[in-house]
Fold this protein.
Amino acid sequence: MTSERSRASQRAGRHRTGLASLAARVVESLGGRYSVELGIDVDANEDEIERWALAATLFGARISATIAERAFAILEQAGVRSIADAGRRDVGTLIELLDAGGYARYDLRTAERLHAIARALETDRRGRVSSVLDLPTDQLKSALDALPGWGPVTVGLFLRELRGVRPGLNPPLDRRAAQAGEHLGLLARGAGVVGLRELAAAAQIDARDLEAGLVRLSLAHGRRIRDCPGGRNCTLIILTS
């Protein structure tokens, strides 16, 4: 009996190790937090959170992540490091900068949206998105969702990479991350944030990186995820490893 228990324990240990290894491969292959890729450290201070708010606004448009990243870099090079900074530039200047980043179809709309958000923040939030982060969760989401052009996608992206920055910042697991986690056999249905954190700890990676990596996997698959065998045989993991 003891021997059987020992073997079962060893199998369970190997299984956990295998899951942790696969979780690490997701981040290594597909990438983790977008904020980190942009050189933003949201854990450092509120100025970094303001930089991330600007980036999240760009990512929220119907544009590729590559173009959003390039536009963010160009804005920063021009001294636009926050939504408040954008509000102090005229629309024409913002359009030129966004065009240089590849926003040709959405340049005017995005420039006007940045101005509208800056005005809303100046009126209600002392010009800073980070001023809402100490609100209770339900009020926080409502305050962010009220920002011009900030719908559920932008709010979700912004908050998931801030998870844990404030004691009350613990949004639900992104549904796309949950779907990809189940697809790979990494997360059981309903595992939620607790399951994500346990797996990330076993893989010795930041839970936010794992969540972002799983979201990337889900986005890359799209509807084709149903045709992929999943697990260690997931076509995207194999192709990018």
